[in-house]
Amino acid sequence: MNKKLLSIVFIVVLVQCASAQQIRFGVFANPGVSWMKSDVSRISGNGTHYGINAGLTIDNFFAPHYAFSTGISIHTIGGVLNYNEGKILRTSDGDKTLTPGDVTYNLQYLHVPLGLKLRSTEIGYSTYFVDLGVDPMVNVKSTANVKAISLSKAGVGKEINLFYMAYHISAGLEYKIVGNTAAVVGITYMNGFTDVTDNYDTATEKTVMHCFEVHLGLMF
Fold this sequence. Notes:
The protein is mainly beta and 220 residues long. It has a single domain, classed as Beta Barrel (Porin), CATH 2.40.160.20. It is 7% helix and 67% strand. It contains one helix and 13 strands; from the N terminus they run αβββββββββββββ.
């Protein structure tokens, strides 16, 4: 990952927080399951991927029950695609000719969500929330496994678009532990709307990712 790009993204996140009336920081580690889906019949989703999304979250409150939410994390995601007409897979070790079959993609992204969070009033020790937003992501690592040709953890950066965009819907609750510290539990659904793969030989094809996560974190 380009260190200059990482620094720029982090600075943008901090600048966005600078004018907030109230800033809350948090950490999280969200286990999740993801899958890939193509819009052409010759490529179909054929399996799930278990990963984790972990990092820092920031809430910028502009009113008692409304906040802009953002943060930065490393998001591991992926899925299985079945190429029923075969394909040329571009790897770091050269092009591989595949017969019809499955390719398991293991992808890692730098993830900077941008959302609007709505919070309830405190009920006992609990506060409920909903978060809606978009998810710009930059691919930092891409590997693939292909059982048919005994290919494992092959670098496939040429097969994956550098930038990816999705949207998310999250809901959950914060449970106050002490002071401003609260445990956070929730669920998140993420759906992509730009193409994950760069299938140069199938230019009209579009593949997106779907993901369900369990949100586990702490707010301070």
